[in-house]
């Protein structure tokens, strides 16, 4: 399965590459919808929990995508410093920085 994902990433014009890109695009739209929806005041607690769970899921998928793109690119630094590599990192980095800050503040 990993080999298929790596092949899809390496060849975005293949049928599997297009499906992979479509899935990532749908997750981007879902993430944007969730982010906007979180700003609505007075949401029920269950909906807030659902939106937080959705955020965790999306960040996990985007993190996995980033790691797969790293594995698929040779040399690795070519992807890391590419436009899309920087954008992908900037998409997930705030989440992890927020976790680090929250974790640190629990010990202060």
Multimeric organization: single chain
Beta-strand portion reads under 5%
Q: Which word captures the global form?
A: globular
SSE series? HHHHH
The poorly predicted ranges are none
Number of strands: 0
Number of domains: 1
| Distance between the ends | 43 Å
Give a brief description:
The chain has 108 residues and is mostly helical. The chain is 82% helix and 0% strand.
Key terms for this structure?
mainly alpha, globular, 108 residues, 0% strand, single chain
Q: Secondary-structure blueprint of this entry?
A:
Elements: H1 2-10, H2 15-38, H3 45-72, H4 76-80, H5 83-105
Helix pairs in contact: 1-2, 1-3, 2-3, 3-5
Task: Describe this entry's structure for a reader.
By secondary structure, the chain is mainly alpha-helical. The protein has one domain (2-105). The chain contains five helices and no strands. α1 (2-10) crosses α3 (45-72) and α2 runs antiparallel to α3. The mean pLDDT is 91.
